[in-house]
């Protein structure tokens, strides 16, 4: 089977149009490998191929499954330099793990004075560190990604959210002298314990949903299935819901404008992701439960 690969845009290129010869039972991956063989910089993860406005998904799906025949034209888009999702996640979460200890232990250099931390500050510090340590461990040992890579430029955009909002902004605001022992940072023990209890429940619930998602996808594959179990009976993305609850507990504990700002941005971003995933589930699986919401039970 002979196929012609052309650019999606009218931009001139020395590489396209490109002709590839494939077996009749060739898969999408076979086509991407054939393109890469002729143009070395376009490795498979950097390619997006479409036919009659349908994106050709990676995997073992044959080209004939899309109705592609001999001498057809396939549209090509360069996604740009790519970086592994796992690498992006590790880099994102590393920021707060570095920034929070600097602000907490380096008060003399950050605020110009030694600080006797209030119980609220100390508890918040450990909650934040434990949260991002959990995220790092999940990235390495739990998550199985449906997409192997993302555009390299996104690593900067994604990291701003964590390095600045939950890193610099939150750490500087919470660990300052205005929240030190004997000042506005004092909280009743029952209030601190209540916030910590909610946080623990939310974090453990978030971990359970991540493990359930992992178990849906056999190792080394990009299989997608309908998720069920804890949290999934009501919403498509319970991991986002539990994440919101955890950070709401932190915002309530600190009573910090910085924590609220981070929470608002986090909710907005997770809402976008949740709606996108919810719509994809409903379009991909005809028997997807109709009573599920995207992110918040009975609401949205």
TrEMBL record:
Alphabetical keyword list: Endoplasmic reticulum, Fatty acid biosynthesis, Fatty acid metabolism, Lipid biosynthesis, Lipid metabolism, Membrane, NADP, Oxidoreductase, Transmembrane, Transmembrane helix
Cellular component per GO, a single term: endoplasmic reticulum membrane
Gene3D superfamilies assigned: 1.20.120.1630, Phosphatidylinositol 3-kinase Catalytic Subunit, Chain A, domain 1
Pathway membership, UniProt: Lipid metabolism; fatty acid biosynthesis
EC numbers, comma separated: 1.3.1.93
Primary location group: endoplasmic reticulum
TM region(s), chain numbering: 160-178, 190-209, 230-250, 256-275
Domain Ubiquitin-like: 3-76
Membrane topology label: Multi-pass membrane protein
Catalytic activity: a very-long-chain 2,3-saturated fatty acyl-CoA + NADP(+) = a very-long-chain (2E)-enoyl-CoA + NADPH + H(+)
GO biological process: very long-chain fatty acid biosynthetic process
Location of this chain's protein in the cell: Endoplasmic reticulum membrane
Similarity comment text for this entry: Belongs to the steroid 5-alpha reductase family.
Function recorded in the entry: Catalyzes the last of the four reactions of the long-chain fatty acids elongation cycle. This endoplasmic reticulum-bound enzymatic process, allows the addition of 2 carbons to the chain of long- and very long-chain fatty acids/VLCFAs per cycle. This enzyme reduces the trans-2,3-enoyl-CoA fatty acid intermediate to an acyl-CoA that can be further elongated by entering a new cycle of elongation. Thereby, it participates in the production of VLCFAs of different chain lengths that are involved in multiple biological processes as precursors of membrane lipids and lipid mediators.
UniProt protein name: very-long-chain enoyl-CoA reductase
Organism whose genome encodes this protein: Paraglomus brasilianum
Lineage: Eukaryota, Fungi, Fungi incertae sedis, Mucoromycota, Glomeromycotina
């Amino acid at each position: 089977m002979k196929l012609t690969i052309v650019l999606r845009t009218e931009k001139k290129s020395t590489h396209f149009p490109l002709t590839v010869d494939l077996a009749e039972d060739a898969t999408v991956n076979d086509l991407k490998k054939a393109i890469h063989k002729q143009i070395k910089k376009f490795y498979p993860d950097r390619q997006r191929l479409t036919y009659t406005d349908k994106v050709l998904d990676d995997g073992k799906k044959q080209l004939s499954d899309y109705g592609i025949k001999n001498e057809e034209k396939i549209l090509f888009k360069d996604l740009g330099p790519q970086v592994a999702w796992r690498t992006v996640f590790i880099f994102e979460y590393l920021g707060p793990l570095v920034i929070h200890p600097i602000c907490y232990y380096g008060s003399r250099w950050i605020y110009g004075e030694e600080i006797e931390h209030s119980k609220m500050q100390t508890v918040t510090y450990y909650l934040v560190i434990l949260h991002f340590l959990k995220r790092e461990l999940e990235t390495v040992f739990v998550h199985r990604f449906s997409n192997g890579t993302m555009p390299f430029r996104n690593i900067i955009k994604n990291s701003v959210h964590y390095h600045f909002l939950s890193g610099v902004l939150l750490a500087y605001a919470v660990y300052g002298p205005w929240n030190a022992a004997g000042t506005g940072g004092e909280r009743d023990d029952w209030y601190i314990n209540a916030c910590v209890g909610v946080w623990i429940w939310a974090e453990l619930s978030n971990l359970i949903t991540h493990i359930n998602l992992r178990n849906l996808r056999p190792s080394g594959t990009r299989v997608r299935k309908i998720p069920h179990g804890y949290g999934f009976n009501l919403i498509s993305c319970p991991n986002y819901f539990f994440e919101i609850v955890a950070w709401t507990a932190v915002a309530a504990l600190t009573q910090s404008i910085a924590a609220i700002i981070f929470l608002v941005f986090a909710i907005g971003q997770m809402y976008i992701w949740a709606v996108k995933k919810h719509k994809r589930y409903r379009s991909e699986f005809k028997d997807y439960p109709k009573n599920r919401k995207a992110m918040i039970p009975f609401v949205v």
